[in-house]
Amino acid sequence: LYGSRQGALHQPLRFDTGFDSEKIFAFHVQAVSRNGASLDVRVDGEFFHRRFWFGGPETRQEETLFYLTVPAGARQVELFVPNPQGVVVIDRYYLAGSPEELPGHESAERLERMEDPVKEGKDTGYRGIWFTLGQFSDYGDKYSGGLGTYTANHIPLAIYAEEVDKTFFVYGGTVRDQQHLLVMASYYDHARHRVPRPTIVHDKEGVNDPHDNPSIAMDGDGHIWVFISGRGRSRPGFKYRSVEPHSVEAFELIAEQEITYPQPWWHEEKGFLHLFTKYTRGRELYFETSPDGREWSEDRKLAGIGGHYQVSSRHGDKVGTFFNRHPGGSVDRRTDLYYAQTTDWGETWTTVDGQPLDLPLETEDNPARVINYSERDRLQYTVDLNWDHNGHPILLYVTSAGHQAGPANEPRFWEIAHWNGTEWLNHIVCRSDHNYDLGSLHVLEERWIIIGPTGTGPQLWGTGGEIEIWESRDEGKRWTKIRQVTVNSERNHKYVRRPVNARDPFFAFWADGNPDEPSISKLYFGEKSGLRYWELPYDMSGDYATPREVSIPVQRSSFQPEP
User: Fold this and answer.
1) Against a cut of 0.70, is the pTM above it?
2) What region, left, alpha or beta, does residue 165 occupy, with left being phi > 0 and alpha being psi -120 to 50 degrees?
3) Distance (Å, rounded) from C-alpha 242 to C-alpha 219?
4) Can you list the positions of beta strands (E) in 162-270?
5) CA distance 420 to 279
6) Pairing between β-strand 284-290 and β-strand 523-526 as defined by DSSP bridges
7) Helix or strand or coil: residue 560?
């Protein structure tokens, strides 16, 4: 059984039965594709059960007999693989009067009826999606683990709304004991210090890939918008709008289109400027505008130099973006650093000092290039973009010697590039042990801080680690580690995200997960001091719950990064 190909779902395998008494229907799963798969069982057109298999470095030899009871009368049993690129090999089927009549019945697994995970529109807890890319080397996968707040190119993931004193957020979730992607939305109520049961905005129908994670926006009336990423041209993206302002109870579907890595920005007078990626010739950068989110302009290409990953941000009338390029179209060779900005909502784009750019950018040596990392044989991984008190951009990113995990591609540096109004200044913050140890940059009144998994975690050389806070009081020239936020963790923490208009205690938002093997993934938020952080409830018995504060020791240290 195959999943979708080029957006078209394969037909399910259907069995029509008609017996005077109930029967046992069984099927033997011989193998599952390397990238994992889901298998849905439907009885009489109704959801009955979903079985999920994680991906791995090789094709999984399952060799398991599954069975269920089929009631008497005319019945229909369907087996269906909902997730794209998933394959389940079933080599034989059985009908029997009882489980004892099945060959090898002692080890057969009975499938019980389960609730449709998205039928109610709500989940019973906060559970991040676990994922492995399946590109393994001597030190594990290129990236893997709990990726509910992935990627750095889904921006933003959270927004604080002062009118209702709530931080609204989205993430890539899943229901208990399952690993197919559900796009979730919720909020943290600052006044009541509680969260509701998260809302399932969209079921990705068996997709287990967090590249399809969402981004969030809020319009001038307070409606919450959820922009859901697709993947290339095989899986579409979606735009949803909350039915009520400042609410995540219900959403209406606005549009379905080709968008990946959505980055929507709202302006009170101009509406939306949406930056995103299309797989036209690799990962190329596009943008569109809309006064209200319903009527959109034509897509305009921003850059196409073999492919790009970008990170953007808004400051008043200005939207800036910085990105890398992919020589030969290879994401494993990502390099160089480019910056472009618009102050007229996409009508024109310029360099940081106002030099007009001729779109689309299609040559590697163009005025938008800030640093030529290809000359240094360094890769560049985009992380975050923020603004100093003069509205000048600060770019946070990781540089590396190679794309594979492990010590061979050391040193890996967290770096910033800061435009001071006259020139770009480049400074190293610290070292890290993984290319995807990504965090966030906050600009406070008298200091800048970076919150991210720069510390060595329990899964060495895996994605993420222990979260630390780094501080600079001289606009990024020198950095000091002032806090170890997480200590003695069971799973690596990763993808620390910065809410728009962040307010304590929901100042940073992230997930955890074991990058070395399938695990649960919990979600967290924390204060800017790093002294307190909270775990969102993994299980909930009621409509609301109070996040659990995690006890951490107070640690302070000061040392300088290696030159």
Assistant:
1) yes
2) left
3) 10
4) 166-173, 182-189, 195-196, 199-203, 214-218, 224-228, 237-242, 251-257, 260-267
5) 35
6) unpaired
7) coil
* 3-state SS, one letter per residue, for 79-141: EECCCCCCEEEEEEEEEECCHHHCCCHHHCEECCCCCCCCCCCECCCCCECEEECCCEECCEE
Give strand ranges (E) for 268-392: 271-278, 284-290, 300-303, 310-315, 318-325, 335-342, 369-371, 379-387
Q: How far apart are CA 511 and CA 336, in angstroms?
A: 29
Using an 8 Å Cβ cutoff, are 94 and 77 in contact? no
**pLDDT (tens digit per residue) in 131-186:** 999 899 999 999 999 999 999 999 999 999 999 999 999 999 998 777 789 999 99
Q: Is 231 in contact with 211 (CB distance < 8 Å)?
A: yes
Is the previous residue joined to 360 through a cis bond, with omega within 30 degrees of 0?
Answer: yes
Instruction: Convert the pLDDT of each residue in 56-114 to its tens digit.
Output: 778 889 999 999 999 999 999 999 887 666 799 999 999 999 999 999 888 999 999 98
**Kind and range of the H or E run holding 477:** none
Written as one string, the DSSP assignment of 485-538 is -S-S-SSEEEEEE--BT-BTTBSEEEEEE-SSS-----EEEE-TTSS-EEEPPS
Q: Hey, CA dihedral for 81, 85, 86, 92, is it positive or negative?
A: positive
The tokens of 59 are what?
Answer: 């094709």
Cα(212)–Cα(221) distance, integer angstroms: 27
Q: Are 224 and 218 in contact (CB under 8 A)?
A: yes
3-class state of residue 210 by DSSP: helix
Q: Give CA separation, 324 vs 228, 232, 308, 461, in Å.
A: 23, 19, 5, 24
Give the count of beta carbons closer than 10 Å to the beta carbon of residue 553. 7
CA 545 to chain centre: 24
**Would you say 469 and 482 are in contact if contact means Cβ atoms under 8 Å apart?**
yes
Pairwise CA distance, residues 535 & 493, whole Å: 12
**261/276 Cα distance (integer angstroms):** 5
What pairs with residue 183 in β-bridges? 172, 202
DSSP string across 364-421? SSSTTEEE-GGGGT-EEEEEEEEE-TTS-EEEEEEEES-SSSSGGG--EEEEEEEE-S
The amino acid at residue 280 is T
